[in-house]
Amino acid sequence: MRGGATAEGAGKVNAQMSTQRGLETENRGPLKGVRILDMTSVVFGAYATQMLGDLGADVIKVEFPGGRRGAGGDIMRWAGQAPEGAPDDLGPIFMTINRNKRSVLLDLREPDAAAALRRLIRTCDVFASSVRYDGLSRLGLHYEAVRVLRPDIVYAHAAGYGSTGPYAKEPAYDDLIQSACGMADLLPRVDGDPTPRLLPSLIADKVSGCFMVQGVLAALFHRARTGEGQRVEIPMFEVMTGFNLAEHFFGHVYEPPTGQWAYSRVANPNRKPYRTKDGFLGLLPYTDAQWDQFFEVAGLGDSFGADPRFSDYRARARHIAELYALVDEVTPTRTTEEWLALLKPLQIPATRMNRLDELMEDPHLSAVGFFERLTHPEAGDYISMRPPLAFSATPASVRRHPPRLGEHTNDILAELDMDDEESRLCD
């Protein structure tokens, strides 16, 4: 248990969570009325379409039967261990990025299924896919073909690489993109170990997913103003290169360069949570006054103030490694709570460091209801994370559990039949 937390406090969190077992029944999200055909899988696209679903869109996840070596559907269904007695197709990562979706199982090798997909496309505002574009073309689902079915469609393609470059047809996964975009070169620049390393997060998938949401929303906004649909390409390599270099271009922004690659404050072996007597502290004095106040309460005010290495922002930037090393020397003199009691009244940015298993006890996350315990009708109790955006008029919501493979196939095909019947009556 976290330093400073109590068993009673943790019990209150769990008790609060246990009362939040129902899905929200009303959809008031800003994307209510928008229908998305979702042919994405794994993390990149699926993370994006969940965010759009949280915002109110009707997301129809189209999945495909398995082949010789797989059980079918999104491969993330099978990653990790489902609870004993629960369906195997509801793995833990699938559960965190596939709520607010309906699953349709279609074998596009069958003419009836392909025809049903075409009918479904006509009812959709957005066509979202992470299938490689060559594969979409072989299925007759390239942009030009889809636009025939729905002229104002927003066609969002989650790609590995931009379609005009030499890598366009190559496969892309988070590991490959982190390797290609320079991200695997960051840790060697911090700790001196020349071995390239990947960050232990699917950061390329998730960041690219956020850009996919941005692209879809911008294209929907354009369509609302003009009536015009368009193709939106979201290439992971380009997205992540720009994301990585936002700060790490640093001195190489200029020609000729004025300094190093990688932002010196961040690519610093002493930038880390600092050890205290009983835990770790996230700490970042930033202004001149905050640095002076920090070392004053640390008992080093006179020596810090007289040190020319730390006299102002530019001097500190040149000697940032020494500065953070000095912080690392003084933080073990007090407990985490003692530091927070000293620093927060001075408005010096500081926070207790959470380990993964402490997040569900965090008082702020508890107060805002970030974690909810829901009950899936087949998988049982699970923990859901609330959508983080707060809208005063059109709130995001969790309305559907992550679906079983093909759970809504019959319902959606019946809806298409009703739509066809209504169309004939109108004619």
Please characterize this protein's 3D structure.
The structure is a single chain. The chain is α/β, with parallel strands linked by helices and 427 residues long. It has 2 domains: 24-249 and 371-426, Rossmann fold, CATH 3.40.50.10540; 274-352, formyl-coa transferase, domain 3, CATH 3.30.1540.10. It is 39% helix and 12% strand. The strands form 3 sheets. It has a 6-stranded parallel β-sheet with strand order 3-2-1-4-5-6, sandwiched between helices. A 3-stranded antiparallel β-sheet has the order 7-8-9, with helices on one face. Strands 10-11 form a two-stranded antiparallel sheet. A hairpin with a 4-residue loop joins strand 7 and strand 8 (280-283).
Provide the fold topology.
Layout: H1 7-18, E1 35-39, H2 44-54, E2 58-63, H3 92-97, E3 101-105, H4 111-122, E4 126-129, H5 133-138, H6 143-149, E5 154-159, H7 174-180, H8 186-191, H9 203-226, E6 230-235, H10 236-248, E7 274-275, E8 280-283, H11 288-297, H12 301-305, H13 313-318, H14 320-330, H15 336-343, E9 350-352, H16 363-367, E10 371-376, E11 380-385, H17 409-426
Parallel strand pairs: 1-2, 1-4, 2-3, 4-5, 5-6
Antiparallel strand pairs: 7-8, 8-9, 10-11
